[in-house]
Design a protein that fits this description.
This protein is of the alpha/beta class and 392 residues long. The protein folds into two domains: 203 residues, Rossmann fold, CATH 3.40.50; 156 residues, 3-Layer(aba) Sandwich (Rossmann fold), CATH 3.40.50.2000. It has 16 helices and 14 strands. Strand 4, helix 4 and strand 5 form a beta-alpha-beta unit. Helix 1 packs across helix 16 and helix 4 runs parallel beside helix 5. The protein is elongated and about 80 Å long. The two termini are 24 Å apart. Uridine-diphosphate-N-acetylglucosamine binds next to helix 1, helix 2, helix 5 and helix 11.
Length: 392
């Protein structure tokens, strides 16, 4: 009798989609694997979810739990309940989660309570800053996981320091970079530069969405005043995350110009636009003079594109982007932001793309190879146990 394995693959927030897409595509190549995509609905709507499902060719999820937004505890609790019910009903053989968002934590907890093995992709990253919700999500998810797939060498050291057995850790590379390599050609054909009227290496890109950067309106204002100084030198394109958009609307910050999608922007300044699609954003990063961000994934993508990245945070959980890539962690002082941006702009506008070990476009293949072996071994062990029970 041939065995078939049902694998739940969880997506919740926007960046999960880039990470899950290559893994599910790889799973679909094997007849014994039955990948099921479960969207928690943490992010929703066309701009934050649907366009990514389409552009990354993942298609419609098999389930959408539609939990939507809420406080951390409410959102996590809702995902826990809804996903837990689905797991009880469907009894998958494995649950694969990625990254560090609330969906990652809630689904691994629900699965572990049902004794379903958890595979965590992007395990072991640590900022050592527990005031970040993502750090708590990482630590708990890793503690609950049976298979821990890492993107850089420091991650295994972090995990072993926390008592994770070396046998559970697999250095797989970076699935987000699998997606980047697969999409780069199409991204370079995006019309977004022409639509905005900006030229290659003559604009900067800004993204901000961390609660610590955007939730306090005085701090947000100070940051955007610093950005306005940079924007005297070159246009700064600012695709605005919904969390940040809410805060901007509440605090009525001036100094921002709005790109309404019609015609080119007409001068320097900070130009806000709706969240960009995956291909448009890759295109924007790839041709920019510099990216300013508080995102995790963007630090990795700019490293592979060879574009300077200023990380507007006190720390990074992705140290390899600093030691081998184009990333500089500049802290969160607005005046420092201006000085660092001017330093970058006075140098060569871009460097050579860096390729940290195993960021080669084949991480998903390595992950699925390990998963297949793990599931086969489990069946074999179960069969041996049954046989020994019958004999005794
Ligand atoms: C979440 C992740 C963060 C990740 C980011 C990527 C957690 C703890 N945070 O942050 O790690 O870097 O996603 O984008 O999981 N909203 C919408 N539409 C949406 C989603 C959100 O309007 O599709 C608004 C809601 O007002 C919501 C707010 O944005 O309250 C924040 O969304 P949430 O999912 O809670 O966290 P993010 O800031 O997006």
């Amino acid at each position: 009798m041939s065995t078939s394995f049902k694998i739940f693959n969880v997506i919740g927030a926007r960046p999960n989609i880039m990470k899950i897409a290559p893994i599910v595509a790889e799973m679909r190549r094997y007849p014994e694997l039955h990948p099921v995509v479960v969207h928690t609905g943490q992010h929703y709507g066309f701009a934050m979810s649907q366009v990514f499902l389409e552009q990354l060719k993942l298609g419609e999820p098999d389930y959408n739990l539609q939990v939507g937004s809420g406080s951390h505890h409410a959102q996590t609790a809702q995902i826990l309940t809804a996903f837990g019910n689905l797991v009880q009903q469907e009894r998958p053989d494995l649950i694969l989660v990625v990254g560090d968002v609330n969906s990652t934590l809630a689904c691994s907890l629900a699965g572990a309570k049902e004794c379903i093995p958890i595979a965590h992709v992007e395990a072991g990253l640590r900022s050592f800053d527990r005031s970040m919700p993502e750090e708590i999500n990482r630590v708990v998810t890793d503690a609950l996981s049976e298979l821990l797939f890492t993107t850089e060498e420091a991650a295994a050291e972090n995990l072993m320091r926390e008592g994770v057995s070396e046998q559970k850790i697999f250095f797989a590379g970076n699935v987000m970079i699998d997606s980047l390599f697969a999409a780069l050609e199409a991204a370079r054909r995006s019309p977004i530069l022409g639509q905005l009227g900006v030229k290659r290496r003559q604009y900067a890109v800004l993204t901000l969405h961390r609660p610590s950067n955007v939730d306090d309106s005085e701090r947000l204002l100070a940051t955007l005043n610093a950005v306005a100084q940079i924007a005297n030198d070159l246009p700064v394109i600012f695709p605005v995350h919904p969390r940040t958009a809410d805060r901007l609307a509440e605090s009525k910050i001036a100094n921002l110009q709005k790109w309404n999608g019609i015609g080119p922007i007409d001068n320097h300044g900070t130009w806000i636009m709706p969240p960009a699609s995956y291909l448009d954003f890759l295109c924007l990063m790839d041709s920019s003079a510099m990216v300013i961000t508080d995102s995790g994934g963007i630090q990795e993508e700019t490293t592979c594109l060879g574009v300077p990245c200023l990380t507007y945070r006190e720390n990074t959980e992705r140290p390899i982007t600093v030691t081998q890539g184009t990333n500089t962690v500049i802290g969160t002082a607005p005046e420092n932001l201006v000085a660092e941006a001017r330093r970058v702009l006075s140098q060569s506008p871009y460097s050579h793309p860096a390729q940290p070990p195993l960021w080669d476009g084949h991480a998903a293949t390595r992950i699925v190879t390990v998963i297949r072996k793990y599931l086969d071994d489990r069946v074999r062990k179960n069969n041996e146990n049954v046989t020994s029970l019958i004999i005794s």
